[in-house]
Amino acid sequence: DAGASDDAAVQGTSNDAAVSRESAASLGYISDPYIRHFVKHPQRRAPLINRGTHSRFEGVQRILRQFISKANSDSERNNGQVVVLGAGVDTSYLLLRQQEFDVGMYFEIDFAEVTAKKAATIFRRTANLRSMLPEDTQIAAGGTEIHSSTYNLLAGDLREFESHVVPKLFARGLDCNKPTLFLSECVLIYLDSLQSDQILDWITRNISNAGILTYEQILPDDRFGRMMIENLRNRGLELRGLHAYPTLQSTSQRFLTRGWHRAAAIDLATYHEHFVQKSELARLAKIEFLDEWEEFILLAQHYAFTFAYTSDTYPFNSMDLKKI
Ligand code: SAM
């Protein structure tokens, strides 16, 4: 049926993201020793893709680390919670543990088809990843989930957030009173905007101190945007949420009109130019020569970070996107 094959195509995007990340990691753009375990068929991506992966990775890791350091430096330790929506085979949790961050509660959600593969890889003996997880870690839900006192990989459909995903989060210890960071990289855009709005509204209704970072496509209507959409459509992928929030302004406005306290958005081109340090750019230039600058900028203008939070007391500081 069409619904199931659409779902399979969307689930397949976790592999695309992983292949790009593995490419950037193996060339030295980013430091991620774990991603290779999740990629069966590595491919070397073009220099402009690797450059984009670097900025995307750096932006997300920066917010994640700032949140965790800040939330956990407040009066109570282990105070922060992270919820990754559509986590795919994202390795951020392993990276945080490797760098000895005091992570607190960490939840990852994806379709069971994706979480089952992730769980199998983590438990594969040769990958040696199991030792990175808390001691009380167990495989659960017929191999589709990982449970522990702090890290939980959960199977669920984000289109049924309140009825299917939320009960699982609560069962594994989500605490509505803790400062919480939601992360969503190239995920909500695959949902109808009504469905993703339901997730955002659930957050504002239930979690008093919440923040969210999304990283998604924007600008569907120019030449490059139409090409981007067409390429995905040819692979059975539809960016359902894109036309509802097509610009930097509308993606941040979306949060403000839905009761979030502050929101700001920047595109990846701006991030690359103003947030990546000059010394880092010099390091990248030595890894691979990038002669398709115009193409890179065009591509990077079509991806945006949007950061929003619900309360003045949100534990967050300097990387305020565009001085939030
Ligand atoms: N965030 C990961 C990353 O950046 O590496 C994965 C990104 S991948 C492009 C999109 C992910 O969202 C896929 O793993 C897919 O299965 C997941 N996803 C999309 N729609 C979903 C839904 N309705 N419920 C659960 N997961 C979903």
From TrEMBL:
Its EC number is 2.1.1.233. S-adenosyl-L-methionine binds at residues 56, 86, 157-158, 185. One of its GO terms (molecular function) is protein C-terminal leucine carboxyl O-methyltransferase activity. The keyword Transferase applies. Keywords: Methyltransferase, S-adenosyl-L-methionine, Transferase. It catalyses: [phosphatase 2A protein]-C-terminal L-leucine + S-adenosyl-L-methionine = [phosphatase 2A protein]-C-terminal L-leucine methyl ester + S-adenosyl-L-homocysteine. It holds the Pfam family LCM. One of its GO terms (biological process) is methylation. The keyword NAD does not apply. It is an enzyme of class 2 (transferase). SUPFAM superfamilies: S-adenosyl-L-methionine-dependent methyltransferases. Transmembrane segments: none annotated. Methylates the carboxyl group of the C-terminal leucine residue of protein phosphatase 2A catalytic subunits to form alpha-leucine ester residues. Belongs to the methyltransferase superfamily. LCMT family. This is Leucine carboxyl methyltransferase 1. It comes from Coemansia guatemalensis. The lineage of its organism: Eukaryota, Fungi, Fungi incertae sedis, Zoopagomycota, Kickxellomycotina. The gene is PPM1.
